[in-house]
Write a structure and sequence with these properties.
Structural class of chain A: alpha/beta
Largest interface: A-B, 39 and 39 residues
CATH superfamily of the largest domain in chain A: Aldolase class I
Strand order of the largest sheet of chain A: 1-2-3-4-5-6-7-8
Number of strands of chain A: 8
Shape of chain A: globular
Strand content of chain A: 5-15%
Order of helices and strands of chain A: EHHEHEEHEHEHEHEHHHHH
Radius of gyration of chain A: 19 Å
Oligomer: homodimer
Distance between the termini of chain A: 46 Å
Chain lengths: 316, 316
């Protein structure tokens, strides 16, 4: 599949940070940045930009805050055409945390939101846009969005912002290809002047397949992470996505190499990927929260009992 | 997705046997059979039926041969409506190995073939049919089949056999959804009196997604294995497939339970699932053979070097 408009965004450090409270070493982040840049990937999201007045440095590592100095130190001296992105959560960032783009190493700010917070997302995206950043709005938990509310949100984003793209974010890993088809069609109907993006989760081994489905439906902003690292079952594996896309600018080799050198050891330290409890939460279209909690107990492999507990929640 | 015509076939022991030379203990096979039967799955394929004159009992375990006594011992006393299947490979079975169905515990014989061996497959399928078995023909390595040869094979199978279904077998895990769409459409065009089946491999994390795509395209015979066990990256995970299918006859619970009890320990002993070398062979539309060999060496995690070696093969 070759389509010139396609942009790939690596969110290895940002989504991966959700499983280690953003405590990646500088060397790891630097190696990721080197590999992503060498592979020709368009964007790398290096973490969240949260306010230190709201979230504590005692509880979270530096990639939760992405202070300019920390980012610069990690990427210093690496030759790269890859743009840098940070994600902002509504209510966790203050406007002062967003420097004018000309003073920042960051190129793009992505606003994560639920449908209900669309007004706030628009406000934040416009603040970032006015300061000179490229922007996107990423609508999380999309498999739970009510149709009429989503319609209204998309119409409003189209009308009131200059974001480059609006994302379908399958936070629960609950979407099937037909849902992607439906949602991408809806997004494209409302977003006449913006691109559609897709961010999958792999709870049911569908993150990559749903990304391909998104491409077929015209999504041009594609999220992926190296070796699929990310919350719970993780994300669309970047190595598979680059194997699929035929754009000559992409080179798979640096990604394969960094998997061997950095991601196999990392996987020994922190857990992500296809595990039955994540498949179960996705089948119930639930946040993987309960499965993540289960994995920290000595019942982590008692799948039937976990299924019954999820089933009970969904009947009561 | 509910469609009454859908038949699910569990090939855990058969495809799983490819990674341990078919040396499963009777208890394991019995636990699989119990779980599959309790889950309401239509068929369980318990192994290959090979001739002992051709393949040696010194090299392969009993599930390579599926002698009647061995099968009966493993399943004795388990209450079940699940039919039993064995797979036969062309050139590895003699007609005498196929008892009349009325004397056998086996209900279905599936003939695995390459396109080029279609004549032999038809001959073998008709032999089994005439002895009273349900039959299918499973066309392997379909991602390498030449279009004109496949057309001819399908026309011939339609004309000359009474098989219930003809399978799309993605031996290399190389198919994308668009290929499944294309192939299923072709199969349905030629096979007016037969069902279409799909057997995926997970080298690119697409076995389940391709099975769903197959369902959308009208495939009614669906192969899966518990926890995705099977050669190389394995197969479509039965637990995910049952989570997707809404036919009320299926019950996911026994499958989840046997995964906890039997498959997590098994996975410690033998390796299957998503591993980068299998993704690489699939990207090149190659048999996973080279990746399987690599995994037995101390270079098993040197992905870039392996990619370069595959790349060289494909240029030379």
């Amino acid at each position: 599949m070759f389509r010139e408009e396609i942009k790939v965004l690596d969110c290895t450090v940002r989504d991966g940070g959700l499983i280690n409270n953003h405590y990646f070493e500088d060397d790891f982040v630097r190696n990721v940045y080197k590999a992503v840049a060498a592979s020709g990937v368009d964007y790398m999201e290096i973490g969240y930009r949260c306010s230190e007045n709201i979230m504590s440095r005692d509880e979270f590592g530096k990639w939760k805050f992405c202070k300019e100095d920390d980012v610069r130190r990690a990427i210093d001296g690496v030759e790269s055409n890859t743009k840098l992105s940070v994600m902002v959560d509504i209510g966790r960032v203050e406007k002062d945390d967003i420097l004018p783009c000309k003073d920042s190493v960051i190129d793009m700010i992505r606003v994560a939101t639920y449908v209900k917070d669309t007004d706030k997302a628009i406000d934040l995206a416009n603040e970032a846009f006015d300061k000179g950043y490229e922007t996107t709005i990423n609508i999380m938990a999309i498999s739970r969005a009510l149709d009429n509310e989503l319609d209204e949100a998309l119409a409003q984003i189209e009308e009131e912002t200059k974001v480059l793209a609006v994302y379908i974010v399958d936070s629960f890993g609950g979407l099937y290809s037909e849902n992607v088809q439906y949602l991408a069609g809806k997004y494209k109907k409302f977003l006449k002047t913006k691109e559609v993006g897709i961010h999958g989760h792999n709870n049911q081994q569908l993150a990559y397949a749903n990304t391909i489905q998104g491409i077929i439906e015209g999504c041009n902003y594609l999220d992926a992470t190296i070796y699929g690292i990310g919350r719970a079952a993780g994300n669309c594996p970047l190595e598979l996505l680059l194997g699929f896309l035929k754009n000559p600018k992409f080179n798979l080799r640096p990604i394969l190499d960094v998997i061997s050198k950095d991601f196999l050891p990392m996987r020994e330290k922190i857990e992500w990927g296809y595990l039955i409890p994540y498949a179960i939460t996705a089948m119930f279209n639930e946040h993987p929260r309960a499965a993540m909690a289960l994995r920290k107990t000595d019942k982590k492999d008692e799948f039937l009992e976990f299924y019954e507990s999820m089933s009970a929640i969904n009947i009561d």
